[in-house]
Amino acid sequence: MALFKSKKETKAPKEKKVPVENAVLKNSDSTGPKNPAGDFTLVLLNPRITEKATMLAQGGEDGKAAPVYTFDVHSSATKISIAKAVQDVYNVKPSKVRVVQVPAKKVFSRGKAGVKKGGKKAYVYLKAGEKIEIV
């Protein structure tokens, strides 16, 4: 009756971990773009056209402030990638970018409960004379 094995098992060499190239992809979902930081056309999803966004785009209530445009952006987009995307797509240089998380909302319609998906939106500030044409 043997208590110990006579032959030692050889262990396979461990695989080396490859470092992640882009930390932006950490929170991205499978439906989103592969690399939103590299391809700037995938960062901006669509402009948000609401009453508040229209007033901000005209330069506030008095019309003298700098215009602010609102966009829905990819959930893993950063301020720098949003600024580069606006510069690439609309040929204007933003002076400032603010990013806001949009929370998911519970909805109840026709007797069924559901959830509206949240996301991320960005406020893009331009200089006083610049303008973006949103069709």
Task: Walk me through the structure.
With 135 residues, the chain is α+β, with helices and mostly antiparallel strands. It has a domain at 33-125: Alpha-Beta Plaits (2-Layer Sandwich), CATH 3.30.70. It is 14% helix and 25% strand. The protein is built from two helices and six strands, in the order E-H-E-H-E-E-E-E. The chain has a four-stranded antiparallel sheet with strand order 1-2-6-3. It has a two-stranded antiparallel ribbon with strand order 4-5. The longest helix is centred in the middle third of the chain and has 12 residues, at 79-90.
- The strand line-up of the biggest sheet is 1-2-6-3
CATH class type of the domain at 33-125 = Alpha Beta
**Separate helix tally:** 2
Structural class, by secondary structure, is alpha+beta
Could you tell me the CATH topology label of the domain at 33-125: Alpha-Beta Plaits
CA distance, first residue to last residue: 85 Å
Into which percent range does the helicity of residues fall? Answer: 10-25%
Fourth CATH level, the homologous superfamily of the domain at 33-125 = RRM (RNA recognition motif) domain
Q: What ranges have pLDDT less than 50 throughout 5 or more consecutive residues?
A: 19-32
In sequence order, what are the helices and strands, one letter per element?
Answer: EHEHEEEE
Q: How many β-strand runs?
A: 6
Q: Radius of gyration from the CA trace?
A: 24 Å
CATH architecture of the domain at 33-125: 2-Layer Sandwich
